[in-house]
Write a structure and sequence with these properties.
- It contains two helices and eight strands.
- The protein has helices at 8-23, 25-44, and strands at residues 62-64, 70-72, 79-81, 87-89, 96-98, 104-106, 113-115, 121-123.
- With 131 residues, the protein is α+β, with helices and mostly antiparallel strands.
- The strands form four sheets. The chain has a two-stranded antiparallel ribbon. Strands 3-4 form a two-stranded antiparallel ribbon. A two-stranded antiparallel sheet has the order 5-6.
- The termini are far apart.
Length: 131
């Protein structure tokens, strides 16, 4: 025997919830989990552009997100500048690149540092300060 709530508004919302939960809930949850996972990857990557050192291990190219965030692979031998001016440099890149917006990335094999036109200083992966 089904027990219906005495309040018609509660009864309607209960039926609406039951309908929603059986049809849309699995899709919404799946969508949320996928975006949470992908968002977590970008967060763990430090939203890597210009001033971070994270590179994708074992990867020999770059990845650019829809918002222009870029990540370069540890095995990548160049740099990539996104359409928004964000830039990344690969782990095997031996120089630096400054984007049109002043963002800079130094390669993992770069032995020096670079000061951007906006005043930010970035260090190559092999930079060792003299003491």
């Amino acid at each position: 025997m089904s027990r219906e709530p005495s309040n018609p508004d509660v009864a309607y919302s209960s039926k609406l919830w039951n309908s929603w939960s059986s049809t849309l809930a699995p899709l919404v949850v799946k969508h949320f989990l996928i975006h949470a996972f992908l968002g977590g990857l970008w967060t763990l990557a430090g939203v890597a552009y210009a001033d971070t050192e994270y590179r994708i291990p074992g990867y020999s190219s770059y990845v650019e997100s829809k918002n222009g965030t870029v990540l370069c692979g540890e095995e990548y031998t160049s740099y990539h500048e996104s359409r928004t001016g964000r830039v990344c440099a690969g782990g095997q890149y031996t120089s630096y690149h400054e984007s049109s917006t002043g963002e800079v990335a130094c390669g993992g094999q770069y032995t020096s540092y670079h000061e951007s036109s906006t005043g930010k200083v970035f260090f190559g992966g092999l930079y060792r300060p003299s003491l």
